[in-house]
Design brief:
598 residues; binds 2-OXO-4-methylpentanoic acid; 26% strand
Length: 598
């Protein structure tokens, strides 16, 4: 039979949870149980977060098979109290096997202590944790550096960014990151005491700067701040980060409607969410979700026989698990990664707004377009040089080398004579292509006909992979056609641009030519297949129909059923697409997502 013990240790200003007294009374033989210390910011500006985390841990404990004695400690909202709480835990007769702590500042201070005491440490609610000691500590919060990249894609459209931040390491680190990303656009940043209630002074400083976006690095105070900001006449778009989603925001929807923030796209169907709501008549947030997963996985790790800090750390390192947070992967440092989306308050509720999908598609398309146009411009520079040097010889090779070095996505650069034979190539490693006849390649055929710049569709290159070739015609001083100069893109050109753009968003972007050939997909085995002819797609008529629509229109939206990202089970995907066009060659860029996941 399973026994769960929950202690409230030290002076915790917290109403005990229902049933707690009874559990404490049962605590007859603590020596047979595994002790786990939990340090949460009970007496602080984050009391409600701490209480939510405690309730989540209690739910996880009810579901676990192990026998645990959980000792809750009050870490207040500062480093000093967190350290004191940890030291007190270390003095317990039954020293904890593991300690769970919340908040970035606590994680910073406690992880060297955990290492020093050989105690396994889990940190939750810790986005700006600065790890200085290896091992021992596993983190369930996505690093702010990753979240910040996603936030920056939304902030990009604003001109005057103001920041109001909680005065602690979480707030300060975030301010640094935003300022580094938008040094010209950040017009003001003002701190506030997270235990405060009146923010009018700070808000008047912000109003003076007339921002069009106000980033609130806030948690439990966000609703009051939003109200006071609107009452002060600040009309800026409210923008937030993960901790801002607190239930109180919806009570103040009159002021908070429209707020956009970055947030994990956790498993909305996980039973824990219903369990929490049923038990506490309120909805849990990411703080409870992290705490639940932390306790659940810790119990699994212990049950698997891991009884030392090193073994527990190794259990997490590199592991992927599926929990309330969704699919989570720990890297070698013990940091968790999982996708984030933008959320928005609309109509008095928390939503995953549609705007993000078209925004991501547009930004990805702009990025690819931008790179292709830069390639074209650098070809024009090379054309001028080759006009003087001709297509062969040392000066021509130098011009090709410079062209190659100016384009990070170039696999190689070459000159081709009017018969379609390669006469010059850079870098040196590809000199094996010299003298090769590429007159059969479709872009060379077109270029010969039109004497205009061309971009190929996917071609089987003589370099040995499927690639894309930009060719610019060359003329001599008498205006005669003397061949062309080219940039051949690297094999993973589209993939590397796309992956950077949609990193950590739970969406898929794929690319198709108008003949149905897939030129990029997250699953490498799909690249090169024809959507209309390959047997992989034959049993998915709605996907083939979506492909036909894509051929006919430059942009649009539809939906289809196909295999999920891992090619495991069928899911309905929403699809939006647009077109990248350069020198008459069109590529369809498609973004797909599973609406049911949000
Ligand atoms: C963080 O440090 O990442 C947090 O979310 C702390 C929270 C108590 C505001």
């Amino acid at each position: 039979m399973k026994h769960i013990f929950a202690f409230l240790f030290g002076i915790i200003l917290l109403a005990p949870l229902p049933g707690l007294a009874a559990e404490q009374a049962e605590n007859k033989s603590p020596g047979t149980k595994t002790t786990i210390g939990v340090i949460l910011p009970f007496s602080s500006g984050f009391t409600e977060i701490a209480e939510e985390q405690q309730k989540a841990i209690e739910i996880a404990l009810k579901e676990t098979v192990g026998d645990y004695r959980v000792v809750y400690m009050d870490g207040h909202g500062d480093v000093e109290h967190a350290v004191k709480a940890f030291e007190e835990l270390m003095r317990l007769k039954e020293k904890p096997l593991a300690v769970i702590s919340c908040a970035s500042w606590a994680a910073d201070a406690l992880h060297p202590l955990a290492a020093g005491n050989d105690v396994f440490h889990i940190t939750i609610g810790s986005a700006t944790f600065n790890r200085t000691v290896k091992g021992h500590t596993v983190r369930f919060t996505l690093d702010a550096k990753k979240e910040e990249k996603q936030l920056a894609m939304y902030l990009e459209k604003f001109q005057r960014i103001a920041i109001l931040y909680m005065d602690n390491s979480y707030g300060r680190n975030w301010v640094e990151a935003i300022q580094a990303n938008f040094p010209q656009k950040t017009v003001v940043s003002v701190s506030y005491d997270p235990t405060g209630k009146d923010f009018t002074k700070q808000l008047s400083v912000i109003k003076e700067k007339d921002p069009d976006a106000l980033v609130l690095l806030s948690a439990d105070n966000a609703a009051i701040i939003a109200r006071q900001a609107r009452e002060a006449g600040i009309t800026a778009q409210f923008v937030g980060t993960r901790p801002i989603q607190r239930p109180k925001l919806l009570d103040a929807a009159e002021y908070t409607n429209g707020l956009v923030y970055t947030y994990p796209s956790y498993n909305v169907k996980h039973h824990f969410l219903n369990e929490y709501e049923r038990a506490h008549n309120s909805v849990t947030t990411i703080f409870g979700i992290e705490a639940y997963d932390a306790m659940t996985t810790l119990s699994q790790a212990i049950s698997a026989g891991n009884r030392t800090s090193d073994d527990l750390f190794d259990w997490y390192r590199g592991r992927t698990y599926s929990g309330a947070l969704g699919e989570v992967t720990f890297d070698d440092n013990g940091d968790a990664t999982y996708p984030y989306v933008y959320r928005q308050i609309a109509g008095g509720g928390f939503h995953v707004p549609e705007f993000q999908f078209s925004m991501l598609l547009r930004q990805t398309s702009e990025e690819i377009n931008h790179i292709l146009h830069e390639m074209h411009e650098s070809l024009e520079v090379a054309v001028d040089k080759l006009f003087v040097s001709g297509i062969k010889g040392e000066a021509a090779t130098r011009a090709l080398q410079q062209l190659y070095e100016a384009n990070k996505y170039a696999f190689d650069c070459a000159t081709v004579d009017p018969e379609g034979v390669i006469t010059g190539a850079a870098p040196e490693e590809v000199s094996y292509i010299l003298g090769k006849d590429i007159s059969h390649q479709e872009q060379i055929v077109r270029l010969k006909k039109t004497h205009k710049p061309v971009v190929s569709t996917a071609i089987d290159t003589i370099e040995g992979f499927v690639g894309f070739d930009l060719e610019h015609p060359l003329f001599n001083q008498d205006g005669e056609f003397i061949g062309s100069v080219s940039i051949l893109t690297k094999p993973d050109f589209f993939g590397s641009v796309i992956t950077q753009k949609v990193a950590n968003f739970p969406v898929e972007i794929w690319m198709m030519q108008k003949d149905g050939r897939i030129i990029y997909d997250v699953n490498p085995e799909e690249i090169g297949k024809n959507l209309f002819r390959d047997e992989l797609y034959a049993d998915y008529p709605s996907l083939i129909q979506a492909g036909r629509k894509m051929v006919l229109s430059e942009q649009g939206r539809t939906h289809y059923t196909f295999l999920d990202k891992k090619l495991e089970s069928n899911v309905r995907k929403e699809l939006i697409w647009s077109t990248i066009e350069i020198h008459g060659t069109e590529f369809r860029l498609a973004l797909a997502y599973v609406k049911n996941d949000f």
